[in-house]
Amino acid sequence: VQLQASGGGSARTGESLTLSCTGSESIVSSNSMGWYRQAPGKEREEVARIHPAGDIVYTDSVKGRFTISTDNAKNTVYLRMNSLKPEDTGMYYCNRLMAQWAWGQGTQVTVSS
Q1: Rounded distance, CA 81 to CA 59, Å?
Q2: What is the pLDDT of residues 90-102, one digit of tens each?
Q3: What is the secondary structure of 76-103 as a DSSP string?
Q4: Number of H helices, E strands in the chain
Q5: Are 80 and 95 in contact (CB under 8 A)?
Protein backbone atom coordinates (compact mmCIF):
# COMPACT_ATOMS: atom_id res chain seq x y z
CA VAL A 1 0.00 0.00 0.00
CA GLN A 2 1.20 3.48 -0.86
CA LEU A 3 0.06 6.38 1.26
CA GLN A 4 -0.28 9.92 -0.03
CA ALA A 5 -0.80 12.70 2.48
CA SER A 6 -1.87 16.18 1.42
CA GLY A 7 -3.48 19.33 2.69
CA GLY A 8 -0.64 20.78 4.70
CA GLY A 9 0.59 24.32 4.41
CA SER A 10 1.25 27.46 6.36
CA ALA A 11 -1.22 28.76 8.91
CA ARG A 12 -1.35 31.29 11.70
CA THR A 13 -2.23 30.53 15.28
CA GLY A 14 -5.92 29.83 15.57
CA GLU A 15 -6.46 28.92 11.96
CA SER A 16 -7.51 25.54 10.58
CA LEU A 17 -6.24 22.98 8.11
CA THR A 18 -7.61 19.66 6.93
CA LEU A 19 -5.20 16.89 6.01
CA SER A 20 -6.05 13.95 3.80
CA CYS A 21 -4.27 10.64 3.44
CA THR A 22 -5.26 8.35 0.61
CA GLY A 23 -4.15 4.78 0.15
CA SER A 24 -3.45 3.05 -3.13
CA GLU A 25 -5.94 0.42 -1.99
CA SER A 26 -8.40 -0.03 0.83
CA ILE A 27 -6.86 1.17 4.06
CA VAL A 28 -9.61 2.08 6.47
CA SER A 29 -12.18 -0.69 6.38
CA SER A 30 -10.02 -3.25 8.17
CA ASN A 31 -7.14 -1.26 9.64
CA SER A 32 -6.72 0.89 12.68
CA MET A 33 -5.27 4.06 11.23
CA GLY A 34 -3.31 6.83 12.81
CA TRP A 35 -2.05 10.31 12.06
CA TYR A 36 1.47 10.99 13.16
CA ARG A 37 3.64 14.07 13.20
CA GLN A 38 7.32 14.71 13.44
CA ALA A 39 8.57 18.09 14.56
CA PRO A 40 12.09 19.18 13.66
CA GLY A 41 14.61 17.38 15.83
CA LYS A 42 11.98 15.24 17.52
CA GLU A 43 10.71 11.70 17.29
CA ARG A 44 7.62 10.91 15.28
CA GLU A 45 4.57 10.86 17.56
CA GLU A 46 1.04 9.63 17.13
CA VAL A 47 -1.57 12.38 17.40
CA ALA A 48 -4.79 10.54 16.61
CA ARG A 49 -6.04 7.07 15.84
CA ILE A 50 -9.27 5.59 14.59
CA HIS A 51 -10.30 1.97 14.69
CA PRO A 52 -12.57 0.25 12.14
CA ALA A 53 -15.36 0.11 14.72
CA GLY A 54 -15.11 3.87 15.09
CA ASP A 55 -13.25 4.18 18.39
CA ILE A 56 -11.05 7.28 18.38
CA VAL A 57 -8.14 8.33 20.56
CA TYR A 58 -6.28 11.63 20.57
CA THR A 59 -3.06 12.59 22.22
CA ASP A 60 -3.68 15.09 25.00
CA SER A 61 -2.13 18.04 23.20
CA VAL A 62 -4.69 17.93 20.36
CA LYS A 63 -7.84 16.90 22.21
CA GLY A 64 -10.71 19.22 21.45
CA ARG A 65 -8.90 20.73 18.46
CA PHE A 66 -8.26 17.88 16.02
CA THR A 67 -10.78 15.48 14.51
CA ILE A 68 -9.87 12.27 12.73
CA SER A 69 -12.30 10.68 10.31
CA THR A 70 -12.37 8.26 7.41
CA ASP A 71 -14.07 7.78 4.08
CA ASN A 72 -13.96 4.11 3.19
CA ALA A 73 -15.17 4.66 -0.36
CA LYS A 74 -12.28 7.03 -0.99
CA ASN A 75 -9.67 4.99 0.92
CA THR A 76 -8.96 8.19 2.81
CA VAL A 77 -8.25 9.25 6.37
CA TYR A 78 -8.74 12.89 7.30
CA LEU A 79 -7.41 15.08 10.09
CA ARG A 80 -9.26 18.30 10.69
CA MET A 81 -7.05 20.61 12.71
CA ASN A 82 -8.65 23.61 14.36
CA SER A 83 -7.18 26.26 16.65
CA LEU A 84 -3.71 25.53 15.38
CA LYS A 85 -0.72 26.37 17.56
CA PRO A 86 2.95 26.82 16.67
CA GLU A 87 3.70 23.55 18.48
CA ASP A 88 1.56 21.75 15.89
CA THR A 89 4.27 22.47 13.34
CA GLY A 90 5.73 19.36 11.78
CA MET A 91 5.54 16.80 9.03
CA TYR A 92 2.32 14.84 9.20
CA TYR A 93 1.92 11.25 8.08
CA CYS A 94 -0.73 8.59 8.26
CA ASN A 95 -0.19 4.87 8.64
CA ARG A 96 -1.83 1.91 10.18
CA LEU A 97 -1.05 1.23 13.82
CA MET A 98 0.29 -2.30 13.44
CA ALA A 99 2.58 -3.81 10.78
CA GLN A 100 2.99 -0.38 9.30
CA TRP A 101 3.33 0.18 5.60
CA ALA A 102 6.18 2.20 4.17
CA TRP A 103 5.87 5.79 5.29
CA GLY A 104 4.80 8.18 2.59
CA GLN A 105 6.32 11.60 2.07
CA GLY A 106 3.98 13.26 4.53
CA THR A 107 2.59 16.75 4.37
CA GLN A 108 4.22 19.73 6.08
CA VAL A 109 2.27 21.90 8.49
CA THR A 110 3.83 25.15 9.63
CA VAL A 111 2.03 27.30 12.18
CA SER A 112 3.27 30.77 12.97
CA SER A 113 2.21 33.04 15.78
Answers
A1: 13
A2: 999 999 999 999 9
A3: EEEEEE-S--GGG-EEEEEEESSSPPPP
A4: 0, 10
A5: no
